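Sharing a chain and its predicted structure for anyone who wants a worked example. Both blocks are below, sequence first, tokens second.
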Amino acid sequence: MIKFAVALICLVLLNMTLVEAQQNDAPIMKKYTFVLLKKGENRNQDSASIVVIQKGHMDHINEMAQNGDLNVAGPFLDDGFFRGIFIFNTEDTVKVKKLIEADPAIKSGRLAYEMHPWMTQKGTVFK
């Protein structure tokens, strides 16, 4: 099921890229790192702790975006097992892993993640 969800998301994004690629003669491809956020194993924090974790999570997202590391971040709205995505502006998975594991929601165990190399035509989806 996890692989299906990742594949579905990638197919949607790939479709957007292919439409643009057909309009250009020589596409320039850029590599990114796609992260699928999912429910972690430790989700039994009290409501006050959850507020603190969520604030730290959002602060961390904003910091990564301001530093140019993170291009896309957003939650899924169906309250399912999959919680959201990150798309990082690098193919350096060591760097991405360090960034993700510094996130308070990951550190607390509320969220877990899968990391996947990904690419798209430069300038079609991201600047």
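Comments welcome. The CA atoms of residues 59 and 88 lie 16 Å apart.
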